[in-house]
Design a protein that fits this description.
3% helix; 57% strand; Porin; 14-stranded antiparallel beta barrel
């Protein structure tokens, strides 16, 4: 799962450009805590328990990103500002590869390093209103992807750079129905941008697809909390993007654009349904559990369609034709987590957790762009209460190394697999994640 960078801002509209600059974020390739290219690093206070029960146990304003109904249980006005430093590691052993013209590339490079350390922030604010209402505003990163191989990567005719960046700005309103029940809704403005590159025809030419879009989505949540026990549920809608931009054919050595045409592709982010529970065993220990269903079956293909003619070396590709096609056929998945919080004293709270993320990528359709696999996470964390107003949260996550295989060939637009280009390789992935956040309550 995947890595974001600030190196490019493709056709950002003024509002979303401002949001992206405010975020200043990157997200990591293939190894963040979420299936596919989802990112879970929205809450440092929940990260210490591997995000177990985050919809059921609001710790600070960052709960906006997971359960809008939970913010009505927060006290006073709150600001939470934090982020994650993601340090992924990845290696690939090339088994075989061919170019678009069928040349053997098996002895070419492994493309390393194709991961890098990056930072993923989030900013949240909540305030109580009259009539048992609470307002919140969150700025966070729900999805991201980047794999970035060196120019001599043996699979360069299928993938070089793959970049996807998604930012949500979410106003939220919660209603305290009773002492034990809170309901909430968030309506988010979602901006997405992307870039895909690979070699074309020969090593002399490289294709580049760029584009962006802005759409709206909805998040619903509810929380029941009677003190010792709590239970929360949340649902996030699909967002159906039409990413509009261009396809460029560039000369590799001088960066000159030989040809350019407008193009678009459709991308639907998945629905998500999350539930979680919390149980206070005694004055010191609280146990939390969580489960999340993600409808990744919405991600069926990457199909880039031309909106005008494109001059490809040796021919003209007509408007309305498919410039690039990759079948994905991802599946619905679950993730599960469990953890605990231990109140050491009035100032310190310790946290621990474990999570299992099921990959949505079928073995048959795993690609060099998204070398994803099932993941097991171990996390620890802590909270230090400086005084009545200030809280500091910290967390560390370790991704237990996993191995996967990629066996990829080019496909025609009707889904028929071809022969060239092709790539086979074995990947080993892991990561370390350090997170910190500061909360001010007044």
């Amino acid at each position: 799962m995947p890595l974001l960078s600030l190196r490019r801002f493709f056709y950002l509209k003024p509002l979303t450009r401002a949001i992206a600059i405010t975020c200043g974020f990157c997200a990591s390739s293939g190894v963040v805590q979420g299936a596919g290219f989802a990112l879970n690093e929205s809450s440092v206070s929940a990260a210490g328990t591997a995000f177990a029960g985050r919809v059921a146990a609001p710790q600070d304003a960052s709960v906006i990103a997971s359960n809008p109904g939970a913010i009505s249980f927060l006290e006073g006005e709150q600001w939470t500002v934090g982020g994650a430093l993601v340090a992924p590691t990845g290696s690939v052993k090339v088994k075989s590869a061919t170019s678009e013209l069928g040349l053997n590339l098996s002895s070419d490079g492994d493309g390393e390093p194709f991961t890098r350390s990056v930072f993923v922030p989030g900013v949240y604010y909540t305030m109580p209103l009259p009539n048992d209402l609470t307002f919140g505003l969150g700025l966070y990163v729900p999805f991201g992807l980047e794999t970035d191989y060196d120019w001599d990567f043996a699979g360069r005719y299928l993938a070089l750079n793959s970049h996807l960046q998604n930012i949500n700005l979410q106003p939220t309103l919660s209603y305290r129905l009773s002492d034990t029940i809170g309901l909430g809704i968030g309506v988010f403005l979602s901006h997405i941008e992307g870039r895909l590159t690979q070699n074309k025809i020969s090593d002399t030419f490289r294709s580049e697809v760029v584009g962006d879009d802005v759409k709206m989505g909805v998040k619903l949540g509810a929380l029941w909390n009677d003190g010792p026990y709590s239970f929360g549920i949340a649902w996030t809608s699909n967002v159906d993007f039409k990413v509009e931009g261009s396809v460029k054919i560039k000369g590799r050595f001088f960066g000159r654009i030989n040809s350019k045409a407008d193009a678009h592709l459709k991308l639907k982010t998945p629905q998500m349904f999350e539930l979680g529970g919390s149980c206070k065993i005694d004055d010191e220990l609280t146990l939390v559990v969580g489960a999340m269903w993600t409808g990744w079956n919405s991600f069926k293909e990457i199909k880039v369609i031309l909106d005008e003619n494109l001059n490809v070396p040796g021919r003209v590709q007509k408007s309305g034709s498919v410039a690039s096609y990759t079948p994905e056929h991802w599946k619905k998945v679950w993730s599960f987590s469990a953890g605990g919080r231990y109140q050491l004293n009035n100032e310190w709270q310790l946290r621990f957790g474990y999570a299992f993320d099921q990959s949505p990528v079928p073995d048959k359709y795993r690609t060099a762009r998204i070398p994803d696999g099932d993941r097991n996470w171990i996390t620890v964390g802590a909270r230090y209460q400086m005084d009545k107003l200030w809280l500091v949260d910290m967390a560390y996550g370790y991704l237990i190394p996993y191995k996967i295989k990629v066996d990829e060939v080019a496909h025609s637009p009707d889904g028929t697999p071809g022969t060239n280009p092709s790539f086979k390789g074995k990947y080993t992935m892991s990561a370390h994640i350090l997170m910190a956040a500061l909360t001010y309550r007044y």
